Task: inverse folding
């Protein structure tokens, strides 16, 4: 599949993950979010930006429990639980947030 | 999970890495299996010997060969509670390398106020043999 934005085509795999993550931009993220039926708030962007930083440093999308642990360190305990992340991304935080962040599907994610 | 349960339930897994990082898919496959397997809360450690020691070399650049440089991912292993990377001293020496040529890989010790500690443990060939003998499962890549 592919995303269309401002006359440009962005290739994605059959599940909607961007093929070339260097093509990512916030506007495209917002478009993917609409497809995922997510209304992006500051809290959503916090997670998405955090995932991009993690990927930038380690070249992987973290597993959910690793994400929770790392978020706890950065944002504090109230923003670091499965429940908090599932409220933001009901169809799976790792899956949906990574897709919006333009990252590959997390390793070991079901 | 309590310490006692760990002893009863968790098996000791050792992933043995013997190949250079980019000529074959073995190194990357091993790393991915480790990351996936880490979810099962076993006692996981990695061994690097023969050309496998090249996987941990600092300052890898892969633009010339058109492959993704996945070496930064070894630094995420601590987040996955994989904190023991055994590197064989003789394998380094035979290649003119020392531990200073390797990446600085650390983990945060939960039981010691999250202090950063080195994950890389330099061991002799004889010690490596003992480590292998002590495992429940050894997977070779």
Result:
């Amino acid at each position: 599949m592919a995303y269309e934005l401002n006359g440009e085509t962005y290739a994605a795999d059959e599940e909607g993950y961007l093929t070339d993550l260097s093509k990512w931009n916030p506007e495209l993220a917002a478009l993917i979010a609409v497809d995922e039926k997510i209304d992006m708030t500051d809290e959503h962007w916090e997670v998405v930006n955090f995932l991009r930083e993690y990927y930038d440093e380690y070249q992987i999308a973290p597993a959910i429990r690793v994400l929770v642990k790392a978020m706890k360190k950065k944002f504090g305990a109230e923003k670091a639980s499965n429940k908090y992340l599932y409220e933001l991304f009901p169809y799976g935080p790792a899956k949906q947030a990574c897709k919006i962040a333009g990252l590959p599907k997390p390793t070991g994610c079901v | 999970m309590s310490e006692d349960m760990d002893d009863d339930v968790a098996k000791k897994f050792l992933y043995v890495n013997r190949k250079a990082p980019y000529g074959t898919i073995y190194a990357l496959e091993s790393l991915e299996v480790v990351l996936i397997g880490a979810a099962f809360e076993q006692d996981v450690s990695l061994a690097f010997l023969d050309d496998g020691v090249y996987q941990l070399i600092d300052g890898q650049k892969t633009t010339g060969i058109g492959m993704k440089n996945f070496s930064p991912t070894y630094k995420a292993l601590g987040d996955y509670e994989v904190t023991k990377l055994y590197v064989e001293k003789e394998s380094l020496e035979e290649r003119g390398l020392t531990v200073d040529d390797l990446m600085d890989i650390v983990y945060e010790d939960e039981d010691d106020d999250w202090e950063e500690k080195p994950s890389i443990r330099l061991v002799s060939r004889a010690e490596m043999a003992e480590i292998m003998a002590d495992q429940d499962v050894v997977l070779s890549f």
Chain B touches chain A through 14 residues (CB under 8 Å). The beta strands of chain B are 12-17, 43-48, 85-88, 106-109, 115-118, 120-123, 137-140. DSSP finds four helices and seven strands in chain B. The first strand of chain B starts at residue 12 and ends at 17.
